[in-house]
Amino acid sequence: MNANQIINMVVRMVLRKAINGGVNAGINAFAKKDSAGRSTPQDQRDTPAPDIQTRRAARMARRMTKF
Fold first, then answer.
1. Considering the domain boundaries, does residue 58 fall inside one?
2. Domain, as residue range, for 7
3. H helices of 1-67, where?
4. How high is the pLDDT of residue 3?
């Protein structure tokens, strides 16, 4: 193996560990019972859920920004 292959192998190992650590941390934060990583639990928020028309408009706006 030449130096380029060894460097690529080491970089891949480090990135794999970093990405897996982040994914595991995110899953653990989401799986918590108390607030699932949010500052305020969703059932205690005072804002009502958006209606269907508002959600559709927001989704269309997000899609339009992709182009």
1. no
2. 1-39
3. 3-31, 52-64
4. 94
